[in-house]
Amino acid sequence: MKEIKYGTITTPLGFRANALCCGIKKKKDLALIYSVICANAAGVFTTNRMRAACVDIDLLNLRRGRAQAIIVNSGNANCCTGQKGKKDAWRVVSALAKQLELEKEEILVASTGVIGKFLPVDKIVRSIPDLVDGLDFNKGKEAATAIMTTDTFSKQAAMEINIAGKKVQIGAMAKGAVMIRPDMATMLCFITTDANITSTALKLALKEAVDGSFNRISVDAQMSTNDSVIILANALARNPLICKQGRNLRLFTCALTFVCQKLARMIVEDAEGATKVIRILVAGARSNKEAKQAAYAVADSLLVKTMIAGANPNWGRIPAALGAAKVDFAAEKLKIALQKQVVYRNSAPGGIKREKLIKLLKKKEVEIDINLGSGKHEYSLLSCDLTCEYVRINTAYN
Q: Fewer CB atoms inside 10 A, N or C side of the chain?
């Protein structure tokens, strides 16, 4: 595998993109991703019961496992907008399908932004001819910028792998800085690949990649209504067909997971108001479920987050969060380390000096290692600290 520096959503063969300002915001707010031929497609979406109209449309259109274009707007989530919201989303799909001379079922749609406001659908529809006319393989970066909301930088990644002598590429872009809590993907992410892969294998690879990346981050324990991860595979690399098992699928899945993990880390680094990345590893758990439960109990604790934000050596907030997680561990076997320095073991403090602990907590990445002493299972994830800036951003966002 080889990472492609400065790779974008249009790095794989046969993909084009464009972005423009349609008037939802005062900067680029509408993006289009397009494959020159119809592609196999798969998606993973939010499990939030209050989901946006675009998610319902994509779930319907992806039944065939095929798609050729994805249109994305930022600045308006088109959620909690009732039947009008669904009609507006279908109107966008229909207008784009007509312009591209495709079937409506070959179009996917995504929205991100403020919840509870009607989509300015006329502005979007009027912009579609220019959006299509400007499609180009050099506009991947512009598309990644257009889907941003409170993000401070665009998030892109690309990989190259060799399958039976054929170069296969994966390109991706994502947005996300708030309402990040796994139960699927927790943001918007669009992935393209020129791999020749069956629809079934593509679904399997995407699920594994999401579970190992976007489902292992948490910013604020809030699940969005519009979360979507969508992948298009157009087979233009002409590699031997990747099926639902075998070495080639493992290689492709590994590369896809790497791309998703890179984007997931960018999301945590760009979390609203965050100043530090927190890596949490829980080992010695009785089951995978309990390891995950313990990890999120710590990651989502406001007291742990603020402790790390202020480099406050009050490490007792970590065992307190664990104790409320309802997982199996014996206090006499529990071990907690910060930056590899043990602070709690055998029901006694680790003896690390306060001044040294403060210094360790001032680092940009803080590591919390926990051993529950109850079994052999482990779980890791990425989180971030919580600062006053998070409150400031979200009191003013609409």
A: C
- Dihedral sign computed on CA atoms, order 105, 109, 115, 120: negative
Amino acid at 14: G
Q: What pTM was computed for the model?
A: 0.93
Q: Are 148 and 175 in contact (CB under 8 A)?
A: yes
Q: Do strands 228-233 and 30-45 pair parallel, antiparallel, or not at all (unpaired)?
A: antiparallel
- Domain limits for position 283: 277-396
- The reply to whether 241 and 297 lie within a common domain is no
Cβ distance 55 to 226 under 8 Å? yes
User: What is the domain count for the chain?
Assistant: 2
How large is the average pLDDT for residues 85-96? 98
The pLDDT score that the predictor gives to residue 181 is 54
* Residue 342 to residue 350: CA distance in whole angstroms: 5
- Secondary-structure breakdown of the chain: helix, strand, coil percentages, each rounded to the nearest 5: 35, 30, 35
Phi, psi for residue 37 in degrees, rounded to 5: -130, 160
Told to judge if 186 belongs to the known catalytic residues of this protein, a careful annotator would answer yes
Please, what's the b/e burial string for 245-282 (b: 16 or more CB within 10 A of its CB; e: otherwise)? Answer: eeebbebbbbbbbbbbbbbbbbbbbbbbbbebbbbbbb
Interatomic CA distance for residues 95 and 119, integer angstroms? 15
Query: Does position 81 have pLDDT exceeding 70, yes or no?
Result: yes
223, exposed or middle or buried, with CB in 10 Å at 0-12, 13-18, 19+?
middle
Question: Are residues 108 and 195 located together in one domain of the fold?
Answer: yes
Q: What length does the chain have?
A: 398
Instruction: Please name the residue ranges forming H helices in the chain.
Output: 53-61, 82-100, 121-133, 140-146, 199-211, 247-269, 288-299, 302-309, 317-323, 354-361, 388-396
Pairing of strands 277-285, 365-371: parallel
Continuous segment of H or E residues that includes residue 346? none
- Given the residues 186, 225, 253, 257, select the one marked as catalytic: 186
* Cα 224 from Cα 48, distance rounded (Å): 7
Q: Residue 184: name the closest of 338, 93, 49 by CA.
A: 49
pLDDT number for residue 184: 45
